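Working notes for the structural subgroup meeting. M.R. asked for a predicted model of this chain before we commit to crystallization trials. I am recording the input and output together here so anyone reviewing the notebook later can reproduce the run.

Input as submitted:
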Amino acid sequence: MEQFLNLISKEMESAFEAAGYDSALGRVTVSNRPDLCEYQCNGAMAGAKRYRKAPFMIADDVAGALAAKNDGTGSAVFSKVEVVKPGFLNLDVKESFLQSYLQQMSADDRLGMPLPEKPEKIIIDYGGPNVAKPLHVGHLRSAVIGEAVKRIARFHGEDVISDIHLGDWGLQMGLVITELKKRMPGLPYFDPSFEGEYPDEAPFTVSELEEIYPFASARSKQDPEYYAEAMDNTRRLQDGERGLYALWQKIVAVSVADMKRNYENLDVSFDLWNGEASVHPVIPGMVEEMKKGGYAYESQGALVIDVAEETDSKEIPPCIVLKSDGASLYTTTDLATIKERVEKYHPDKIIYITDKRQELHFTQVFRAAAKSGLVDQDTELVHIGFGTMNGKDGKPFKTREGGVMRLEHLIADIDTEMLSKISTNPEIPAEEAEQTSRQVALAALKYGDLSNQASKDYVFDIEKFTSFEGDTGPYILYTIVRMRSIMQRYAEQSGAKDPASLRTGLPAGPVEKKLMMDIAGFNAMMEGAYADCAPHRVCAYIYQLSNDFNSFYHATRILTEQDQAQKESWIALLYLTERVLSRCIDVLGFSAPSRM
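Returned structure, recorded in token form:
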């Protein structure tokens, strides 16, 4: 189905053309004065200079062309076409046109959202946690935003691959191995003469790993010999020493198992669990190609690629491919990852979702990749930088003790807060209350994050996020649960008549018409959310839709309506609204319970 606003614009464009003007002037927009009209067209203002004619006269000609349509019966799209000086066209849409559009949406499994002729192959890189470290609140935004961007793209019809891109290589691994050797020197991994099979079970738990890394990191900063040993172990690991590599595999396996548990609690999943280590073999060949191609050169011992451009408003330093000691950096592994992804998946687009403070890093990486031929001109590289999640003091969110909060503790806190609210409903058994509270808490957490534009910082306010009123996830879910409750009671009244078989009628008043126009804007909203990788647009849309539905609900006695045809029309509208809302929360990464 074509977007509702496009259809309206086509009607106006044909009227401009019929009146002797450029059809491109007929673009229609949503009114910025809803008290005066529903839509507006300002094309006459834009055409005045071109046609050397007063905009009011142009608008009057266009209104006349609309009135002359269909053998003088007027436009099939507009119920009101009002010319307002100095040349605005104020428009209202015909109720019959709106009704017909919603009936087409209702009959379509995708709610009228067309599939692309040729789906794009997109890789989305998000998550990015480090092995041997616990997930903390800093990992929340990448996971939540990335999951929503992935789901929006998939609903749009694109072929999407998600990759967590683990930090599983480099000095941090050498530090952990070094400390494990200090604590457990008898492990076979440290015996160069050991030739048997290594144990199936890891000799440590995830909790022990999470304690070992910060301890080892702190010690390396105070003990030069310890640091040197960690660097040596890092080199030996990367050179493929059998025992250290086997131990590294155990570290990764234990860490990933814990990560999967945490991400599952967020309803976040990844197609690929690759990390920096997976592209380590790619680096030597890539570096040689960069040297041979003349893209990379030595500067103060390091290997760099110049990426500055004449149009830069600020200095962009060279991209460092290898340090002076020959060691690789994040830049190196990111470039090697791009090379591997292009060769293996041939993506049209690669999207990275990280803290916005990495903007310079990705500018350098993207330019270096393009300059050295790792990607061609048709491959789009996109970085979505997000702001920080802050406490009420405006500073990055911390525990009460001032430390960085673990992600699982944050989830537990919001689950507990929501359970205390859900448990006030005596009709919900304790077991169901626990399950429902987790479902609603996830909506509170995700919506609280996603309703903000990704690049902006926001305040994590658990009281606000878990409220059932206002612009919150629980409010959206409560609205959906209300709709489902009405439909269930209708089914009981009507002998389980399927709402999908009913047809939306003409709006009975302005409140209902406003709700119907909201629904008609679904496709355009989703298209914009996909094009701009902007989940906050979905949040803004469903908040408006929920508000307008609740206004309709309070103004209408749906189940006690005596006119059966009118009642069925309202149930059909309610059913379509619920489908739209449910689709939207699904792409945001959460779902609604049966009751609250």
